[in-house]
Design brief:
heterodimer, A: 11 strands, globular, B: mainly beta, 7-stranded mixed β-sheet, 11 strands, 0% helix
Amino acid sequence: SQKIEQNSEALNIQEGKTATLTCNYTNYSPAYLQWYRQDPGRGPVFLLLIRENEKEKRKERLKVTFDTTLKQSLFHITASQPADSATYLCALGGSYIPTFGRGTSLIVHP
Amino acid sequence: GAVVSQHPSWVICKSGTSVKIECRSLDFQATTMFWYRQFPKQSLMLMATSNEGSKATYEQGVEKDKFLINHASLTLSTLTVTSAHPEDSSFYICSAKKGGTNDINEQFFGPGTRLTVL
């Protein structure tokens, strides 16, 4: 069956460190992958999109990698700040409507 | 930017009543809108895809007679939860895309509506 796996346990890190979140998938062949940020009680906010033929994408302190062989995307936030604390969702897309993972909660401690 | 609003942001209703939730794209025309529901610590579950001027496409297991969707214009879609029951209590989120359903465009999400059915 198709699965999108994001670590259900919260990631706790210290301010200034790099946060790395993982999105693994099985039985999908996505044409692209997206990362969203969701704050409690709010709708998701789009952050980055990476296509299947791209290995890496950057935007300011954010970096996303996409390994279609490993069926994995890594989402990095460098120089993390307490304001980065939120839930981060990955979504797979292609010839179908994007499907979301459960998200991983990131907590950045001052 | 592209802004999507939802109204109301929260609603409490009695069991058996109907509730309408509005989703508006404020500064762009949305050919396609999506409706999701999200339970605590769960992923967004797609309920239906709505294209302006045509009937919504519902995901498997979603009752179309219970969750009525109307996409009357390029900037407005409504979700009506009919005869709501406590198990319908959830966080309902809409999103809008500028392109077609399968275009690689980002989705712009609304802030969500918290529905509580007593």
